[in-house]
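pinging the channel bc i need a second pair of eyes. not urgent but kinda urgent?? the chain im working w is below, pasted from the shared doc
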Amino acid sequence: MALALGCCLRDASEAEIICIALSADAAPESIGLRGQSSLAGRSGSCPAVAERAIQCDCLVRDGDRLTAPAGEPYHSIESPRPVDEADVLGMSVINSGDLHSVLRLLDVAGVPRRTADRIPSVHPLVVGGNSGLADPEPLADYLDVVAIGEAEQSLPELLRIVHAHRTQPGIGPTLHEQLARVPGLYVPTSCPAAASARSGPSTPPCPPT
C-alpha cells in the first residue's frame, strides 16, 4: 500500500499551502500524514490546510492498472483540485514490496516518474517516506526527497521551505539544496556519491541523515 501527501499553493498572493493526503485505499495510516500537515498549519509556522484523495473514490481499476474516469482528474475529495497541481506530492510507503505503487500513482496523476523529467515550478516536488523506504535507493531516481524516520520535525520544515521558496523564488540556494540541509531529509540529487553508486559499484552510497 502506498499513501501520498500533496501540498498545493492556491496562489502566491494567498500564501496558503493546501495539503492533500492521497491513499491507495481508505487506510487509517493516511490520517497521520494529513494530521501532520494540519498541525503545521494550526501552529502558524506554515499556512497549510489538509485535504484527502482516496483511490477508490475517484479511480477505476482495470486489471492491474488504475485510471481516472473519462474527463476527470485524480483529485482531492474535499475539492476538485487535481493531484498534479500540487507543489509537493508525498509518497508514504508502508511495505517495501509495494514500491511499484509509487510509480503507478505518479502515472495516474499525470506526474513524470523520474526526477530528471520533472520541471521545477511545473511539476510537484515528490517526497517519499515511512518504513517501506528504509532503504531509499531503489526509488532514488524517482523521489526528490525521502523523509527518514517519523518526520514530525522534518515535514513541517519541508513545508516552510517550500512555502518560502514559492513566495520568494530565485533567492538563495535552490529548493533541493535547502531541503538537503534539513535533518531527517535525504535528497538524492544532492548526494553525488549515491548517484555514482547507482550508475556503478565503485563508489559507496551516501547514507541518509
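so Residues 169 and 175 are 9 Å apart (CA to CA). and The longest strand covers residues 2-9. — does that match what u expected or am i reading it wrong
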